[in-house]
Amino acid sequence: MSPATAPLSHTMPGHHGAVRGADLNRRSSSFEGRFGRMFRTLPAAEFDEKILLKLGQAMTSAPDDKPTPETEVDDEENTGISAGYTYLGQFIDHDLTFDPASSLERQNDPDALVDFRTPRFDLDSVYGRGPDDQPYLYRTDGLHMLLGAALKGNDNDPNARGLPRNKSDGTEPARALIGDPRNDENVIVSQLQAAMLRFHNRVVDTLDSPTFEEAQRMVRWHYQWVVLYDFLPTIIGKDTWHAILPHTLKGTTVLQDPPQIKFYQPQKDAFMPVEFSVGAYRFGHSMVRPEYRLNLKMKDRLPIFSTTGDSLVGFRQTPDNLAIDWSLFFTMGPASKSGPNRVQPAYKPDTSVVNPLGNLPPSVAANPASLPQRNLLRGWRMGLPSGQAVAAAMGITPIDDDSLRVGKATEADKKTNPKLKDISPLFEENAPLWYYVLAEAQQQFVKDETPIHLGEVGGRIVGEVMVGLLLADSHSFLRQNPLFKPLDAFKSSGGDFKMADLLKQAMKA
Ligand code: HEM
User: Fold this and answer.
1) pTM, two decimal places
2) CB neighbours (10 Å) of residue 300?
3) Which atom of ligand 1 lies at the shortest distance from residue 277's CA?
4) Does the C-beta of 371 come closer than 6 Å to ligand 1?
5) Rounded CA separation 455/462 (Å)
6) Domains contained in the chain, CATH given
7) Phi and psi of 196, rounded to 5°?
8) How do residues 399-424 score in pLDDT, each as one tens digit?
C-alpha cells in the first residue's frame, strides 16, 4: 500500500504523527491516562475538510529565503518569551499527552481514547517505567540515568552529553533509548531531555545516599516548581496566572490562598482534555523559529528542517559539534541584546506558523505533512467547540469577526492580513479553537516590540489544566508537600528556581 492510499494511522514509521506509539502495548502499567472534554455541553464546531486545509495553508508563512541576520531585529520575534520556553513547552507536552490512535479521517470520541502518557507531571517521558522494568535506561547502580555520547561546542559545558542510543548498523538510525521517542524529534528537545537526565544525576549526587524513589521525587518536584512558577507565568501572562494562583499575587502560601479553578473540573480521576491537547496547548507550534543558533562555535544558525543541507532534525545520532549553550535559549545571566550571543527570542504566538512546519519531513508526519493542517483537522475530528463558544462559556466576550485575522503579528503584515471569515463564511463566529487561541494572543499586538503571551481563553485552558493536573496528582508537591521549596543549593542568588537554574545544576552532572 502506498503512503498516499494507506489509512493515515499506518503510513509512517514515525513518532509524532499518525502512528506514534501505535505498536506500544496498551496493557502496560503506564497507560492509565485518558482523554476527555473540559466543556462537555458545548456543541462540536462544524467545518469541512476543504476550508480547514485552506486555513492551514493561510496560516503557513511564505518560505523565507533570507532569514533576518542575528545582528538585526526580526519583527517575528517575541520580546516577552525566549526560545527555550518553546522547547520546554514541547517537552512538557510529551510528559502529559500522547495520542497515537485517533484518526484524521473520521470523528473520534475522546472518552474512548487512551492517553499514552499519564496526564501527570511525573516525567514518565524521562523515567519510562523505572529501573526495574526498563533497566537499559539506567546505570547498573539503578540510581543514575544513562547518558549518551559527549557533545562539543559549548566551552561552558565541558560535560555536555547527548541521549543514550542503540548502535546504528549503518542501515538503521541510532534510536534514542528514552522514555518517549518524541523527545528525539529535534536536536533541541533531545538535548532538553538529556539535560533532564543530567539533572536527575545531579540530584542523586546532591542528596545524602538517596533511594531511586527519593531522587525521582525530588527531580519531579523541582520540575513541577518550574512549570508552576516559571513556565506558566511566562506563557499565560501574569494576570491569568495570578487569577488562577492568587497566592502568587498576595505573597501568601498555596494553603492560605488555594488555586481558583473554574472550568477544569474532573468528576473522578484527572483526564487530559482535548481542548488542551488538540486546541490550546498546540500554541507552541506558532512559537517555533525557522532556525536556531545552538552554540557560539557554529558558523551560522541551522534551519529546523532542510531537504538540501544540515538541519536540526532529530531521530539520529546528534552531530557531536552541536552541544547546546542554554544561555542562547534562556536568560542565564547578563547577555547582549543583539548578535550571536544574545538570548534568542521565540517567535510570537500568532496565527502564523513558519514555513518549514507546513512541510514536515516524513520522519515526523505525512499525509498531510502540514502541521497547521493536521492541527485543524485533528480539532475538527475530535469535535472541539469553536473558540467563540469556549469564550462565551467562560463569560468572556468573543472576539468579533472583523478582528480575527490570519497571518503574522507584525507591523508589516498587520494591515494586509485577511480576515478569517474571508477564507470561508463557514468561519463566521465559528473559529477553530487552535486558531482562536492564537488569534486571541495576537490581539495584544500593538508594535513589533510588544511582548505577547496567551490571552484569557488560551491562558485559562492551559493554566487551569496544568494546575488542575498537579492538584489531582496525589504524588505532586502541591498534594504531598504544598510548602515545598527547591533546594537552597539549587536556587539562584536572587532565591529563585527557574528553568535556567535547573539547567545550571544539570550542567554540573
Ligand atoms: C519543534 C517543533 C515541533 C514539531 C515538528 C511538532 C510536531 C507535531 C506533530 C507532527 C504533532 C501531531 C499532529 C497531529 O497529527 O495531530 C504534534 C502534536 C502536538 N504538539 Fe507539536 N511539534 C513541535 C513543537 C511543539 C511545541 C513547542 C508544543 C507546545 C508548546 C507542541 C504541542 C503539541 C501538542 C499538545 C500536540 C498533541 C500531542 C498529543 O496529544 O498526541 N508541539 N506536534
Assistant:
1) 0.94
2) 12
3) 35
4) yes
5) 10
6) 8-400+430-506 (1.10.640.10)
7) -70, -35
8) 999 999 999 999 999 999 999 999 99
